[in-house]
Amino acid sequence: MQTIIGLGRAGCSIVEKFRQYPQYKIYTIDTKITESETAFALKHQESPELYEANFPDLKETFLKEVSGDILFIGSCGDISGASLRLLEQIKDKCNISILYIKPDLELLPGTKALQENLIFNVFQEYARSNVFQKMCIIDNSTLAEVIGNIPVKEYYNRLNQVIASTLHMINVFDHSEPTMSAFSSLIDTAKISTLGLMDYDSGEEKMFFDLTIPREKRYYYAIPEKILESDGTLMNKIKEHIKKNCEHDKMKMSYGIFATKYEQPFIYCASYSSLIQKNEKKD
Length: 283
Fold this sequence. Notes:
- The chain has a domain at 2-132: Rossmann fold.
- It has 8 helices and 12 strands.
- It has helices spanning 8-17, 48-53, 83-88, 110-128, 140-147, 155-174, 225-230, 234-245; strands spanning 2-7, 24-30, 39-41, 68-74, 94-102, 134-139, 180-181, 192-198, 205-207, 216-224, 252-260, 266-273.
- Helix 1 packs across helix 6 (155-174).
């Protein structure tokens, strides 16, 4: 069972979407939250610096049972100032991966933008130096474009549901026996990643963050059993997809095919880079 820790409103909202899956143990940390064995209420602070300075020692209380493989989900609000203090308390007994949610930079005021730039770069540097296992980046504005028109009241609910379901399915496939696979070990130095979806018919990729110079891409083909039994064109389709989406000659491309009970095929993507990603606003 993987443990997932959400910090702040964005992190906790996504973590809550994982409650529908029995494979995860969930912890949430925020200011406006009802406390329980797996939910901790922080005292409100006026700045990221104060959240960092006043973060309590939870090693022997709230975080006592936390160990093993950990996914930490957070973003760049003021409470993100507590991120490193929290992770420092568990890093010696956990293998930590980061899921970082980038907000729309166009909507951030100056001080918030500075905090976003700081936490975005610090997380990446720590992942590249092996303090963290890896870092996955998802840009909310890019994901909204992938999904299409979303009613205002459903905006974050829809984004968070797609993030959780995509990550969950990739986790499931990573721990399942494929019908056929060309997967090999991930490139050790490619610590920065993102997720995405591919259209089965067109092979069009829609990634959740514009990753600069990816070194490796993995495709998870979730294919109904009836198609696996009857469609003789699938392997050619996969070859066409890989050829279409290979961005440079040195990119490592691989795939796994997994039998499902779904009516329709789905393709999930994961892309990995060795480079620190720049914080650039969209045109």
